[in-house]
Amino acid sequence: MVIIMKPHAPKEEILVLKHRLEKENVQVNVSEGQDYCVLGLIGDTSKIETTKIQANVYVEDVHKVQQNYKLANRLFHPDNSVVNIDGRKVGGNELAIIAGPCSVESEEQIVEIAKDVKKSGAKFLRGGAFKPRTSPYSFQGLRTEGLELLKIARQETGLPIVTEIMSANMIEKFVEDVDVIQVGARNMQNFELLKELGKTKKPILLKRGLSATIEELLMSAEYIMSEGNENVILCERGIRTFENYTRNTLDLSAIPAIKKLSHLPIIVDPSHAAGLWWMVEPLAKAAVAVGADGLIIEVHNDPQNALCDGQQSITPNRFDNLMGDLNKLVESGIRQVYSTANV
Ligand code: PEP
Ligand code: MN
C-alpha cells in the first residue's frame, strides 16, 4: 500500500500516522520529495482499512498494491484449481459443459432434456427448482418437487445436477440432494448465504452479480473459501450496461482478467448474458476461444412453451450442433489456455 500525504503535511502528523500503521505489523518507509511525502507499506496490509486512512485530513491519496482476496488469489496459488465433482472436472483441460432447462417443469421434460444433452456430450445437468423471478406472479419453480425430479433425471442419465439455492435454510437439503450448488447473480452478495455455504464441502457455482465488478465477484468467492470450502467455480453471465439490445452484456474480458487474478475455474453463461437464443451459439464459441473452463447453457425441448426463459433457450438439436463446433474449436488448439507461464 502506498499513501501520498498532502503537500506540506506537518512532519509530526506524518509521524503520528506512521506509528499508527506500524502497530498493524507493517513496515512503513517514508520518502520525502520536494512537495509530497509518500509512505510505502511493506508486509500484510490486508487488514488495514483504506477508508480510515482516507479519513485523515493530511492524506491526499491511498493506493492498494495488494488485492483484498487471498484464498482466491493466483499470487498465493499459482496453479489452476480444478473442482472435482464425482470424477468430472471443472478447470481441467477438458471443457465442462452444463446444459438443461432454465426450470424443471415436469418429470418427462427434465428426463427427456437430460438424455438429449447427455447424448450431445454435456457433463452436467442444470435445472432451476427454486427460481429467482423479477415478478412474484411469474412461475417460481417446482421447489422441492423440482429437486426430486432432478434426482430422477440424474438416476436416468448419471449426469450430476446443478441447481440454484436461494435461502440458507435449504442448505442441508441441497447438500444431500444436489451435486453443485448454484448461487445466482441476485445472491452473489448475500454474504450470510455465502458464509453458510462455505461451511459445506459442496462445489459452489458462483454467478457474477448483475452489476458486480470482477473484484466484488472474487471477494464473494473469498467469503465461501474463508469458511473452508475451496470448491468454487466462478461464472460470468453478463452484466448490466447502457446497452439494452441484449438482456445483459457478456463481459468476455472478465475471463482473461479472472485467469490472471485468480486460480479458480471460470465458466460462461451465454444464455443469460444474451437473453436471445440465436446469440447463444456465437457467444458460447467466443467464450471457449478466450479460455473459459466451461459453459452453462439453457436447452429446452419446446422453447415456445417453456415456463421460464424460452426466448434464450436453444433446442437439443441446436445444442448438438454447437457441441460439435465446440469440440472442433478445442481440437484446433485456438482456445486460449492459461497457466502461470502466460498470466
Ligand atoms: C439461472 O441460471 O437460472 C439464473 C437465474 O441465472 P442468473 O442468476 O445468472 O440470472
Ligand atoms: Mn434462466
TrEMBL record:
Q: Which Pfam families match?
A: DAHP_snth_FXD, DAHP_synth_1
Q: Which UniProt keywords apply?
A: Transferase
Does this entry carry the keyword Lyase? Answer: no
Enzymatic class: transferase
Example GO biological process? aromatic amino acid family biosynthetic process
GO molecular function terms listed in the Swiss-Prot or TrEMBL record? 3-deoxy-7-phosphoheptulonate synthase activity; aldehyde-lyase activity
**Which segments constitute the DAHP synthase ferredoxin-like domain?**
1-67
Do the record's keywords include Transferase?
yes
* PANTHER family noted in UniProt: PHOSPHO-2-DEHYDRO-3-DEOXYHEPTONATE ALDOLASE
Protein name, please?
A: 2-keto-3-deoxy-D-arabino-heptulosonate-7-phosphate synthase I beta
Taxonomic lineage per UniProt? Bacteria, Bacillati, Bacillota, Clostridia, Eubacteriales
